[in-house]
Automatic annotation (TrEMBL):
Its EC number is 2.8.1.7. One of its GO terms (biological process) is cysteine metabolic process. GO terms for molecular function: cysteine desulfurase activity; pyridoxal phosphate binding. PANTHER family: CYSTEINE DESULFURASE, CYSTEINE DESULFURASE 1, CHLOROPLASTIC. It comes from Palaeococcus pacificus DY20341. This is cysteine desulfurase.
Length: 396
């Protein structure tokens, strides 16, 4: 797929730099900024309970953003809760569930810290047991071990795509295992939403989290927590206050219905509106086109790195490799490689990528990470590889 010129025009930074840092945050199209500007300049007001026309408009646009988001991932309107980001969403899940000593929590060794620390904290605080599914150094899970570990589990939490290795996990299959055991199934979809199809029902998700500023190309500070409807009566709202109640006396309170029950205080109204605009932008392009473009880039960059004898990480089966490629250039530190690339206007991420257990497993202190979105091109990858070739030559 040749990148349409209108996408380049919509995202001016693509004309100034080669932006390969999409796993950390994606670039923002002008239509997203325009939608947010319209809110701030033309109908800036708080949502809900306001009678005046500005509040009515703001409420309509905010709740329409919820509908757009729900439709995008196959959820019901009331199952969508707006949060700050993926990390907050996953922490809310851990805080809102009831735990007892001996409960089993199952996760993987490849999780982002945001989908590991909340479960470690819950296990420590309530005496639950944390068990880890086995896997290999490419990030491939041992599904037989997963089936064994999931037996008797209270909760299973897994990332859809690894931000460190780029591996696409068998979330649908593991979701089926969790459902057969009656376990709660939590999906970290931070690196998949906006890059490939994500449907909460196909994945068997009870809870699913993602951030607006990554795949959906929305603003920072807005995230989503999907809560399956059947959990409304048992999932306790971790945060209460303005907007969450139906009635209050000096001695007690009654919570209102979801989703407002789970959104305490004034929400990120402009952020939700921007997220919806980003989703619409993604839908206009087409998820299938985005996924195909990223696959082409992964194929070429991994071929090129292999030709240069540069070690790269993640699954060799490229059908399981999303648009995230981590690598190193020994003996250079990842930050040094990133600095060299920056000198050539190529933006990559370097470090442990909030996945320190993965780095420890591989025996490294970090990686350089190139990650893609639909506005990235094969020409940009070729430029990257030419810079890498010169760097490698200088070390030999």
């Amino acid at each position: 797929m040749k990148i349409p010129e209108d996408i380049r025009k919509d995202i001016p930074l693509t004309q100034e730099v080669i932006y390969f840092d999409n796993t950390a945050t994606s670039l923002t199209p002008i239509p997203v900024i325009e939608a947010m500007d319209e809110y701030y300049l033309k109908y800036r007001a708080n949502v809900h309970r306001g009678v005046h026309r500005l509040s009515q408009r703001a409420t309509h646009e905010y709740e329409n953003a919820r509908k757009v988001t729900a439709d995008f991932i196959g959820a019901k309107f009331e199952e969508i809760v707006f949060t700050k980001n993926t990390s907050e969403s996953l922490n809310l899940v851990a805080l809102g569930l009831e735990w007892k000593k001996g409960d089993k929590i199952v996760t993987t060794p490849y999780e982002h810290h945001s989908d590991l620390l909340p479960w470690q904290k819950a296990a420590k605080k309530y005496g639950a047991k944390l068990e880890i599914i086995e896997g290999d150094d490419e990030g491939n899970l041992d599904l037989a071990d997963a089936e064994k570990k999931i037996k008797g589990a209270k909760l299973v939490a897994i990332q859809h795509v690894s931000n460190a290795l780029g591996v696409i996990h068998e979330v649908e299959e593991i979701g089926k295992m969790a459902k057969e055991e009656g376990a709660i199934f939590v999906v970290d979809a931070a690196q998949s939403v906006g890059h490939m199809e994500v449907n909460v029902n196909k994945l068997h998700a009870d809870f699913l989290a993602f951030s607006g500023h990554k795949g959906p190309m929305g603003p920072t500070g807005i995230g989503v927590l999907y809560i399956r409807e059947e959990f409304f009566d048992t999932f306790d709202s971790p945060l209460v206050g303005g907007g969450t109640i139906e009635d209050v006396s000096l001695g007690e309170y009654t919570l209102t219905q979801p989703p407002e029950r789970y959104e305490a205080g004034t929400p990120n109204i402009g952020g939700a509106i921007g997220l919806a605009a980003g989703i619409k932008y993604i839908q206009k392009i087409g998820l299938d086109k985005i996924e195909k473009q990223e696959h082409k880039l992964v194929k070429r960059i991994t071929e090129g790195l292999s030709e240069l004898e540069v070690p790269w990480y993640g699954p060799r089966d490229l059908k399981k490799h999303a648009g995230v490629v981590s690598f190193n250039v020994p003996p250079l530190h990842p930050h040094d490689v990133a600095a060299v690339l920056d000198e050539h206007n190529i933006m990559v991420r370097s470090g442990h990528h909030c996945a320190i257990p993965v780095m420890k497993r591989l025996g490294i202190n970090g990686t350089v990470r190139a990650s893609f979105h639909v506005y990235n091109s094969l020409e940009e990858v070729e430029t990257f590889l030419s810079v890498m070739e010169e760097l490698v030559k200088s070390l030999r």
